[in-house]
Design a protein that fits this description.
The chain is built from eight helices and no strands. The chain has two domains: 88 residues, lambda repressor-like DNA-binding domains (434 Repressor (Amino-terminal Domain), Orthogonal Bundle), CATH 1.10.260; 47 residues, no CATH class. Helices cover 73% and strands 0% of the residues.
Length: 135
């Protein structure tokens, strides 16, 4: 059990280093208040506290997959690299191309307009879509 705890802590520390590097590369200070503010502007779920994101920066915790995806999109990095430190081969990119190919021109334009919105408006549109999708 001690070995598993050590491995997780080592993984969390390495994740922390990649997160800090990504924030700096993207032009953000690697500080908990900055991470909390920027993350919560983009995340559709329950907002996180400064203490929660501080654990990511200190290497004490690794975010869940949905949160990791938000971080990767915000920082414009590969989510697999952010989590594990290695890049995936073309399989994910090929899957993304197939998904994109199924869209109509109107759907593609709507997605492009959505992606051009500032983070706070993207969050609002996402909440509307989720509300409409509920039965």
């Amino acid at each position: 059990m001690l070995h598993l705890t050590f491995c997780y802590m080592n993984e969390a520390k390495l994740f922390s280093e990649r997160l800090q590097e990504s924030m700096l590369t993207a032009g953000y200070e690697a500080r908990p208040v900055v991470l909390e503010r920027e993350f919560n502007q983009r995340y559709w779920g329950k907002p996180l506290t400064v203490q929660a994101v501080r654990r990511w920066l200190l290497g004490n915790a690794i975010p869940t997959q949905d949160r990791l995806q938000v971080l990767a999109e915000w920082l414009n990095v590969d989510p697999h690299w952010l989590r594990f430190g290695e890049k995936l081969s073309g399989s994910v990119q090929q899957q993304r191309k197939r998904w994109d190919a199924k869209m109509t021109p109107q759907e593609r334009q709507a997605i492009e307009v959505f992606l051009a919105l500032p983070p706070d408006k993207r969050k609002m549109v996402g909440e509307i879509i989720h509300a409409l999708a509920k039965p």
